[in-house]
Amino acid sequence: MKTETRKLAIADYKKRASVAGIFAVCCRATDEVWVGQALDLEKIQNRIWFSLRMGNHRNAELQRAWSAHGEAGLSLETLERIEEEELSYVRDRLLKERMQHWRTQLNASVV
What is the reported pTM? Predict the structure, then answer.
């Protein structure tokens, strides 16, 4: 890849809008559900799966489910997307409220 092409690709990547929202990790074998919030829904699965593969995810229940059932036993689903907010404190408050709503709805733990 030429230097100029590479620089343009990096610039385009940095310009892309990230979508915040609420997601759920579900274990098919046990029907357990964990709900979390993310500032970038496109990246969150990679981040969670990486820590689970390394065996050091901060949620011990989720790590046990991964160890017992593997990657094929878990899925990540987007529950809700948050419209782009100019003010980060408004977005953060909304994410907390919506995460609590989904935790209650699904009787779920926090990721």
Answer: 0.83
